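Fill in residues.
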């Protein structure tokens, strides 16, 4: 029998519970199940299981938070495209 790592235990718990990832209580950090602990697990003790939510001001058009909100893949992609276009327009301005 293998001895799972903490990362594997957390990932398995999140997947089994239907969660999308982790978020910190202060909103400073978040990560998806597919990319747990990109911060190197600094401050991981303050993380909570959460769900992906639409976000108009976030870098990727979504964030991980406490409440479950439906967001289709299409909505997510559309938001990401809109943000990329806006960012490119701002870079082109003199």
């Amino acid at each position: 029998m293998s001895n799972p790592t903490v990362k594997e235990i957390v990932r398995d718990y999140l997947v089994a519970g239907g969660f999308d990832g982790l978020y910190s209580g202060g909103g400073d950090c978040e990560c998806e199940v597919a990319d747990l602990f990109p911060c190197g697990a600094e401050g991981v003790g303050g993380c909570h299981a959460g769900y992906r939510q639409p976000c108009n001001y976030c870098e990727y058009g979504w964030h991980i938070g406490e409440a479950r909100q439906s967001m289709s893949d299409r909505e997510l992609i559309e938001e990401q495209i809109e943000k990329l276009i806006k960012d490119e327009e701002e870079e082109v301005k003199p």
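Strands lie at 21-24, 30-32, 47-54, 62-65.
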